[in-house]
Amino acid sequence: GAVVSQHPSRVICKSGTSVKIECRSLDFQATTMFWYRQFPKQSLMLMATSNEGSKATYEQGVEKDKFLINHASLTLSTLTVTSAHPEDSSFYICSARERQGVYGYTFGSGTRLTVV
Amino acid sequence: GEDVEQSLFLSVREGDSSVINCTYTDSSSTYLYWYKQEPGAGLQLLTYIFSNMDMKQDQRLTVLLNKKDKHLSLRIADTQTGDSAIYFCAESINNDMRFGAGTRLTVKP
Fold it and tell me: Which residue in chain A is spatially nearest to B85 when comparing CA positions?
């Protein structure tokens, strides 16, 4: 089945630095990938939709200059958290849809970001 | 309010059946999904049901859909300790996907 690889699984960074998270579709092409954020004991919050070869579409309230998304190929999307602050500490998950309709989304394993 | 609602916690004994309930509000949902999230991991698709179906069974999992009441349930038969996780229901509308807050299932030995 479809597999989405997300890396790194855990990262600790200092305030003010930037962190890049990668999301790869391993055995299928994903023209669209999605980035979610999950706060403790809460559901997933869609941050942005990443479109291959074009600009990402951000949800209301998500700062696009802070959360930079690049989808340069059909199998790779990256999320860069710029000038990270402790309040950016969270669990970030990407997903990709293999094809329209039935199969829904395939999720990466998530990245636990801790900003100290 | 939330488009997709679930109770937050469920606790069962090993061997019992678990039933996780979900309500949604958009009748144009085409597919409804159940995902499982183990601690520190991403979401794993468990099963899905097309909106014109009433029931789907897959081994220990049974999904029931009441489209009139916009109610979706997931029944896990013979619940095991390895089933302890957070279960999210989700509805798919066009290219959007909306998740419930997740139900944390705890299985006691």
Answer: A41
